[in-house]
Amino acid sequence: QVYLAESGGGLVQPGASLRLSCAASGRVSTNSAAMGWFRQPPGKDRDFVSIIRWNGGHTYYADSVKGRFTLSREKDKNTVNLQMNNLKPEDSAVYYCVRGTGIILSSIWSQSAYSNWGQGTQVTVSS
C-alpha cells in the first residue's frame, strides 16, 4: 500500500503564490512511476494539472497552468512539490496528489492511470 500525504493548501489573493507538497510512503515502486496533481473545482469534474515522470523527470502540464505552475520532485524523499505562481480565481479547487506505476505516455493525463490518491487539499484564490 502507498500513502500520499499532501500539504500546503490555503486561501490567497489573486496573483499570489502557493506551494503544494506531497510525500509518498509505504510500498513505493519506481517502475515507470509518475506522480503529480489533479484538481476539482467546486461543481465541476476533476481535471489534470501536472505530472512528473519519476525516473526521467519529464513534466507535463495542463494548458491552463503552463508558465505559472512548476512541478518538481525530491527522489530521496519520494516527494513532489507544485509551485503555483500568479494564482487566479479559476485555480480554486481541491488539489489531489496522485501516484502510479506502469504509466505509459498515452495515459499520463488520465485519472484512471493512477492507483494512489491523496485526501485532497483546498486551494482558494479570492480577493
Describe the structure.
This protein has 127 residues and is mainly β. 0% of the residues lie in helices and 49% in strands. The protein has strands at 2-7, 10-12, 18-26, 34-40, 47-53, 59-61, 69-74, 79-84, 93-100, 116-117, 121-125. The strands form 2 sheets. Strands 2, 4, 5, 6, 9, 10 and 11 form a 7-stranded mixed β-sheet that branches. A 4-stranded antiparallel β-sheet has the order 1-3-8-7, with no helix packed on it. Strand 5 (47-53) and strand 6 form a beta hairpin. The protein is globular and about 45 Å long. The mean pLDDT is 95.
Rg: 14 Å
Unreliable spans are none
Assembly state: single chain
Structural shape: globular
| DSSP strand content | over 45%
State the share of residues found in helices, binned by percent: under 10%
Query: What is the arithmetic mean of pLDDT?
Result: 95
What is the terminal separation in angstroms? Answer: 40 Å
Order of secondary-structure elements = EEEEEEEEEEE
Task: List how many beta strands DSSP finds.
Answer: 11
- The number of helical elements comes to 0
